[in-house]
Design brief:
Elements lengths: L35 H11 L5 H10 L6 E14 L12 H22 L3 E7 L5 E7 L8 H13 L5 E19 L4 E6 L1 H12 L5 E3 L1 H6 L4 E5 L15 E6 L5 H6 L10 H14 L4 E6 L6 H14 L3 E6 L10 H11 L7 H15 L10 H5 L7 H4 L3 H22 L2 E6 L6 H13 L5 E7 L15 E5 L5 H12 L6 H6 L14 H13 L3 E3 L3 E3 L1 H6 L6 H10 L3 H13 L2 E3 H8 L4 H13 L3 E5 L5 E4 L2 H9 L3 H18 L8 H10 L3 H17 L3 H12 L7
Parallel strand pairs: 4-6, 9-12, 9-13, 10-11, 11-12
Antiparallel strand pairs: 1-3, 1-4, 2-3, 4-5, 6-8, 7-8, 14-15, 16-18, 17-18
């Protein structure tokens, strides 16, 4: 070092009494020393040896220095093999070496799934201190993304390979030195700092199967990740005690029922009588069958009222399941019931078809030990390739439906003996006839069961349902809010119950003569959104009205117009993505959205969806691994779809159909009617005909005759095809 500093070296040790100038730094790569051909060759050679993000930064910027201070999320994972020797965790056999490679590749894939270019497995450590991974988010590319990191770690624990016995994980966030570390002969890009040491120490005190983080990380992620604070502890190398937090679960990962309920955060306004009716019926149903039908026009709050009842039911330790009807599935037999039973059986896209069949079979036999060959009847409703005995195949379509309905009744009764059961079917105006027939069958045969059936639809006169005429069914019609209730809602939204008369006329709270008027709650909320977005209204402790801007602006006088105006105010990228999502459906996943919208990375899609959720256009209902979102309101979905030009709609429907056909190629049967719908809207008449006939044959086979007729008609005269 003395020689490098330009000082004489005559003794093994020499006292230095003058300031020593720091030696000149060495560039990570001396680009000017190479000609263009050599630079290109160097770029090819180093690619396998450096992280992709670092490679891109080196190549794009021709950087000579990479050292910097930057915020990161740093993670240490200690992993133990099931077959390691008791006296050492070091890699000692060829099998363990192969397992290490498999484990490393698996961990890299999980990290990439969450972090994209801003995350990577930094290194693998093996030795007398155990086998460890060091993972980092935020270097060399931002952001540090602690939310992504914790979701990644939950997935690492949830999905660990079978040959791994346990994992202990410590994670911290903070500023570090990031850059090349080592000697002039060999250097690597890594991160160094106190926060790195802290994550390692947290790993060391972690129990098997747990994830420990620090208070700062827990605070930054508290909106999306649930953490439990533990008693303060002293970590090696730390002078002050640290409060570790046990990472428990992703708040966004929930049941479909809870996701629909949690959309509504504000208290219910103006529906006190209706809520009393609903809760009274639910309390009675804890002993015997009950039902309710909540109906009314768009935006009157059917789902919001029902969600208050669901919270009440769940608070009584009841089980809740939900199915939703959609316009594009009204020819799919049992469409909402499929949602109900897939949720009960725990069926997700993460399970293979064989695993789903196994789960349905095992859980049905647990409910009904004497079910026998009838377990194969789930094929009719779930569309899974359940094995069916020859005796079932020999039955007529009507006889199979009778046996299927009996199977479902018995399952519902068995579930209700364990836990009171609530089944919600939303949007019955779009229901298929098989769905309605099953609903009526349950309503007529479960008088002694602790079951409550709740349905919503728009117009009472359009629903011919036997269950609606039963004494146990409570009809709850909803209309616009009264002027008094509208002012209560206004107080909730703005903190005041009164606004200038001109504003209240725009909000629908007063008629042209200035008299108080009933108002649709959704219209009131969306009109306020338009006014606040345009700067007419501002709320900052007090409400301010820009009278001049109010005189110039025109507020749409329909809910459709208000939602379209709100859609128009979105940033172009968010608006375009929302329109693509509307073609997939009211509920949609990020994976097909990224493919169909041709977005470069899933992270870009997730960022845009997060912004749309903040603006209350969408809502995240399930995070990794599926990332499922929901349009906040059915009308928002309809408006987004209708705003698309026809040519663009056709293109997107073709994209959705192509993605579905590829993704589920091993079991397309449940999707035949949906594929027929998308291909028909894409004007691909050949494919629409093919899938419509397949779906119609299947509907006829399960005695869904109305759906079969509609599908045969679709096959004979697809939209846009001249007869």
């Amino acid at each position: 070092m003395l020689r490098q500093a330009g000082l004489p070296v005559s003794e093994p040790f020499e006292k230095v009494e003058t300031a020593v100038s720091p030696p000149a730094t060495q560039p990570i790569l001396n680009w000017p020393a190479y000609d263009e051909a050599a630079q290109n060759r160097l770029a090819e050679v180093i690619l396998p040896f450096v992280p992709p993000a670092l490679y891109q930064r080196l190549i794009a910027t021709r950087a000579t220095e990479m050292a910097e201070h930057r915020p990161v999320t740093t993670i240490f994972v200690q992993f133990d093999y099931k077959n390691r020797r008791d006296d050492s965790s070091a890699i000692e056999t060829a099998d363990l070496g192969q397992q290490l490679q498999l484990y490393y590749e698996w961990a890299c894939a999980v990290v990439s799934r969450f972090g994209q270019e801003n995350a990577r497995v930094n290194r693998v450590l093996t030795g007398d201190k155990g086998n460890q991974l060091h993972i980092m988010f935020g270097a060399p590319v931002a952001p540090d993304a602690p939310e992504q990191a914790l979701r990644c770690l939950l997935a690492l624990q949830r999905e660990k390979p079978a040959f791994i016995a346990t994992q202990r994980i410590g994670v911290s966030v903070g500023k570090v030195f990031a850059g090349p570390v080592g000697s002039s002969a060999r250097r690597e890009y890594t991160v160094v700092g106190d926060v790195v040491n802290q994550s390692a120490r947290l790993m060391q005190v972690c129990e098997p199967g747990q994830i420990l983080t620090d208070q700062l990380t827990a605070e930054r992620t508290r909106q999306v990740i649930e953490c439990e604070p533990l008693p303060p502890i002293h970590l090696k190398g730390k002078q002050t005690a640290v409060t570790p937090h046990l990472v428990q679960r992703d708040r966004a990962t929930t049941t479909l029922m809870k996701a629909y309920v949690d959309r509504w955060e504000r208290p219910l306004v103006g529906r006190e009588e209706e809520l009393d009716l609903l809760l009274g019926g639910m309390d009675a149903a804890l002993q015997e069958l009950g039902a309710t039908a909540v109906y009314g026009g768009t935006g009157v709050g059917k789902s919001r009222l029902l969600s208050a009842g669901v919270r009440h039911w769940l608070a009584k330790d009841g089980l809740g399941l939900i199915g939703v009807c959609y316009p594009h599935t009204n020819d799919t037999p049992y469409s909402p019931w499929r949602d109900v039973w897939r949720e009960y059986f725990g069926l997700t896209d993460g399970l293979t078809v064989a695993q789903q069949v196994t789960a349905v079979t095992a859980q049905t036999r647990a409910l009904l030990p004497d079910v026998g060959e009838d377990v194969g009847l789930w094929r009719e409703l779930l569309g899974l390739p359940m094995p069916q005995a020859a005796a079932l195949n020999d039955l007529t379509a009507e006889a199979r439906q009778v046996r299927l309905f009996s199977l479902i009744r018995r399952c519902v009764q068995a579930i209700a003996l364990q836990q009171p059961l609530l089944i919600v079917l939303e949007g019955l105006q779009w229901a298929d006839q098989a769905t309605l027939a099953l609903l009526d069958d349950l309503g007529g045969h479960l008088d002694e069961a602790a079951v409550f059936l709740a349905v919503t639809f728009r117009a009472r006169e359009d629903m011919a349902l036997a269950i609606l005429e039963r004494p146990s069914c409570i009809p709850i019609p909803l209309v616009d809010l009264s002027p008094t209730s509208a002012r209560q809602l206004l107080t909730q939204l703005l903190g005041t119950s009164e606004l200038p008369q001109a504003v209240e006329q725009h909000l629908g709270m007063r008629d042209r003569e200035g008299r108080d008027s009933p108002v649709n709650p959704l219209f009131l909320e969306e009109a306020l959104n338009v006014m606040m977005g345009a700067g007419v209204l501002r709320v900052n402790g007090r409400v301010y009205v820009d009278e001049a801007e109010l005189a110039r602006m025109q507020v749409p006088d329909t809910i459709h117009g208000l939602l379209l105006a709100r859609l128009d105010r979105l940033p172009p990228a968010g608006r375009d993505l929302l329109q693509v999502a509307s073609v997939i459906g009211r509920q949609f996943a990020a994976e097909p959205l990224q493919v169909i919208a041709q977005t470069p990375t899933q992270q870009i899609v997730l960022n845009l969806l997060s912004e749309l959720s903040e603006s209350e256009m969408t809502r995240l209902i399930a995070a990794d691994p599926e990332w499922i979102y929901l349009f906040q309101h059915a009308m928002t979905h309809e408006v987004a779809y209708e705003s698309l030009p026809y040519a663009r709609r056709q293109q997107l429907h073709a994209g959705v159909a192509g993605w579905l056909a590829t993704k589920y190629e091993h079991n397309l049967k449940p999707l035949h009617s949906v594929l027929a719908y998308h291909y028909s809207r894409a004007a691909n008449h050949r494919q629409a005909l093919q899938y419509a006939i397949l779906a119609a044959d299947e509907a006829r086979h399960i005695f869904a005759n109305r759906e079969a007729i509609d599908l045969y008609n679709l096959a004979g005269n697809p939209p846009g095809c001249a007869r």
